[in-house]
Queue: 4 jobs
Job 1
Amino acid sequence: MKYKDVEALIKENHPELYSDFSRFKYSKFIASQLMVMRSSNDVSQLEMANFLGVTQSKVSKIESSKDSDLTIADMLLYCKKLGYNLTIEIDKDDWPESISKTF
């Protein structure tokens, strides 16, 4: 059988590994988006570092880190510098509505 991607193959043939694969696949999604947001706004790592009050190497570390290592403060400051809003949402299937806050 032909699969459209590795994820489909693992999901069908190794369901016991699928949750670990999904976590791995997205483990750097937010961090990489911070880098895309910064570079698409023509802001250098050094400019971001000056805004954040950290070194350029810290900005590099933030942008290449695992999402689990990011702080809300890091994400909020990136958004503030680049003109984006940061929305945090908490939801549960049996809740009538989610809790959401935009900064």
Job 2
Amino acid sequence: MISILPKTGRRILYFTLLAAFVLLLAPPVRRFFFSGGLRWLYILLFAFTLAYELTPLMIRLARRFSILDLPDDRKSIVKGPLFWGGSPS
């Protein structure tokens, strides 16, 4: 996996976004966004944090259950990308 952040930086970012996701689930926070006319911002933040949190899990599950798009003679790729999302690392 190619990343510009060191491993500890990725963990800090992951847990920070996890806390933001849990905070977005709270009814007072949702009410704040909806009553202020910021419904689309709420949906954007919710979708981004959910996708960021679930991508590493889906990568692990795809590798564990061998749900990979493996290359054959007709394909030009060398390493198989995952079916469930993520990078082909």
Job 3
Amino acid sequence: MLNPDQFTQHVNANGGASYRISDNAVPSSGFMVSRSGHEQIVSSPLHPDHVKSFLNEHVKGSTGDPYLGAWVHNQKTYLDLSDQYTHKSSAILAGKKNNQLAIYDVGNDKEIKVRSDQS
């Protein structure tokens, strides 16, 4: 199970992280896509209590084997549930379906903009 203290330290030290909730695995490849409706913004620095609260609110009833993602921007930390995709095309489609502005390319450490179906 995800260790909130370890996750928090990683995010605060590196500006972001993705950990699989079931086993703390960190992705080294693929594409991460946030799940619509499972996002939260908290003040930085991130605290383990933020992580515990997010997990309690968003993981119950979720399907699959999601990741907890976080990134820091403008003194705020963005938390989300996300899924890992092997293929870029599948990730982009999932990003559009979930009304995301972008997906994350783990292997190349970069954001890929996607257009929302709502645009």
Job 4
Amino acid sequence: MSKKRLNLTNDLYFSVSDVNAFHDMNYQMNKYHYPATCKLFGTRLVKFYSHHGAKVHFNYTKIDGEHLRYGVVGHDDLLRDLKYWETLTMATVMLKPISFFIGNEKLTTDQELIES
């Protein structure tokens, strides 16, 4: 009896200070991570949805055969969602165990606010 292996997706979230700059640079380096509509509109559509609705955009890729989904959210939008449940998107994501990787002193201070 064979068992099918589940294709589980690993999640990674980037909190960035400039969503537009991130998508411009990332699209140039990783076009295949973005939906086909970007071939027509570039990153304009992604940027629009990054500033409206859930304010987070998810890209999908595979690394070493493992599925990876990464979300990109503006730092201020992330904090607002965690403090005030503005869209509940990031607050819901953070219900499961997560790890923080922080490379900015301002973010460290903000993380202390989130954890309190």
